[in-house]
# Entry
Amino acid sequence: MTAPNDVIYETLVTTESPDGVLHIAPMGVRYRSAQRGNQAVDQVVVMPFRPSTTLDNLLATRRAVLNIVTDTRLFAGCVTGRREWPSVALAGGRGRRLSVALRHLALELSDVQEDPLRPVLTLDVCEDLTHAPFPGLNRAQAAVIEGAVLVSRLHLLPLARIEQEMAIGQTAIDRTASAAEHEAWGWLCEAVAYHRAHQNEPQNDHQSDRQQVAA
Ligand SMILES: Cc1cc2nc3c(=O)[nH]c(=O)nc-3n(C[C@H](O)[C@H](O)[C@H](O)COP(=O)(O)O)c2cc1C
# Structure
């Protein structure tokens, strides 16, 4: 179902636990269109690595909200322990969207392909609403997204490679960042520096499992 060269879009997925606790996670998603009878159904494919709160919430509630966001502080924030961001309840109990989302898609789980490491979840789009115009592409935002991916893989990738790639991103930050991207980039640089200072400390089992997957 997921061809390796499918385009991946970086988004924030909001889910809730069965008792209503909001969870925000950056996730790369793919868009699909399926035929159901005479009707075309828009779908989103999400692939969370186990263990994942997003996965647990999705399996328990069968609901998620896809948030399309250009404030990259949310990506950098979520991977550096800053997961508290304002949200708004959707009508009809369809979950919560991020207040800064330019657009959101309310999703309902329609298929799960089980996998011990990374299940493939397909969700139907049941609402698609735009809240603000997309202002265009910004190089510093792309650098923050790339940096956030690197920080989320600090325990999987060699530190030298991460620092090399962060140095490339720094140029885009220096030339094109607004205050928001400077703040986000600062959090990411702090996380890399913290990892450098603590890299010789023993890993937990979950980290070493993932390292083997990335190798
Ligand atoms: C831009 C970006 C895209 C990401 N995409 C994925 C993804 O597709 N699957 C995944 O498991 N983690 C992805 N991550 C890492 C997760 O956001 C992070 O590990 C998160 O904590 C997921 O676990 P959770 O569901 O328990 O929060 C991504 C991180 C970033 C910054």
Residues 139-214 form one domain. Helices lie at 53-61, 73-79, 139-152, 159-176, 179-198, 205-214.
